[in-house]
Amino acid sequence: MPVRHLIAIAAIFACTAVGWFLLGGALAVRTSEANRQLAPALEGNWGPPLAQSHPSVHYTAPGAADAKRQIAPAASEVRVALSYQPKRKGLLRYRTYTADFSADYEIANPAPIEQTLFFEFTLPDPGLRYDGFELAVAGAATGRTPERGVVREALRLGAGETVTVAVRYRAGGLATWRYRFEGAHRIANFSLAMATDFADYDIPHGAASPAEITPAGGGDGLGLRWRYDGVINAGDIGMAMPKILNPGPVAARITFFAPVSLLFFFTVLTLVGAVRGDALHPMQFFFIAAGCFAFQLLFAYLVDLVPAAAAFAIAAAVSLALVGSYLWRAKSARLARVALVAQFAYMVLFSASFFFDGLTGITVTVGAIATLGILMALTARVDWAEVFKPKPPSNTPQPGGAPLATDPS
Length: 409
Hints:
Elements: H1 3-45, E1 50-53, E2 56-60, E3 68-71, E4 75-84, E5 87-89, E6 92-94, E7 96-108, E8 115-122, E9 131-137, E10 140-141, E11 150-157, E12 162-174, E13 176-180, E14 186-187, E15 190-196, E16 207-208, E17 212-215, E18 222-228, E19 231-232, E20 236-240, H2 247-275, H3 282-302, H4 308-330, H5 333-352, H6 360-379, H7 384-387
Parallel strand pairs: 1-13, 4-15, 16-20
Antiparallel strand pairs: 2-3, 2-8, 4-7, 5-6, 7-12, 8-11, 9-10, 9-12, 13-20, 14-19, 15-18, 17-18
Helix pairs in contact: 1-2, 1-3, 2-3, 2-5, 2-6, 3-4, 4-5, 5-6
């Protein structure tokens, strides 16, 4: 194979890589712009990440700061059921959910005299829609409604008397749900039971792990429980919705990675063709590169119309058909079969690894090592000087030409 052909192939590879980088950049911009427009609207219609705060209780104490003394509920029994309901918006998927919240807080008067205690419960977001909201004292609904996201109730209790305050509501949220203890220095007799309709759970950063995890009967959900008994500076309780494949970012990453796959593919075609005496012309590499580029191009614009797996399968099949049929007609069935195997391994399987978190690096590493081993075994006895030796010029007369006359003398 002439050196000039190798230079031409390298130039074709570089131009194709530039095309992929431009396509990946366009995908990243489309995804970012779509998220900028859709995220605020989705949060407004469905809800933001929910963070429910622990209630606060205080009573008037002239000797205390601000004439108020803060106390914590004597006992808390909190229940929340999370129903995962992801939404699809073009190139993006959003991890939306519905939270059914209910809690019973036991409020005790610590003073030896009758006095009024003030119970305050702050909702996650003052502008959010809450279905079925209810505040009940000793089992009787009070009819109280939140003001600027806070509902307050005055409790007249005798010395050492206790009463149960119950709160319940239903609201939609996004990505994560949390229960916070901001301002509560000591948490006693606290229990939170969480029920999910999904098993692929994740604890958000900074949140505590559950004390118990049990499978839910008859489904894929889980039952989780947290318990705090006399805990100082208790950590948040939280749950992150299951990870979801976002087609836009995945398509962009696959596109940016494509030049690495093409480099492996071109290397195999170049070496196999040179060793077997069936080398490809640079123009043939140009059409092969175009067939590979069609994979990411079709996937990028198909993925926001059909599910990501289906878009990937269609784009891969089209690219394999383009390259395989071209080599079958341009060269030979044997080289076409080799090319199809190599293209499937490098262009399809490497790209498919982006659908699984944490597998891309090891997939590329294993593929590179396997390729190196196979090529070393196939070319161990090749005389490379002979392979890359320039071909001598041909002395065959051109069509229509006449042999040169010779002087008989």
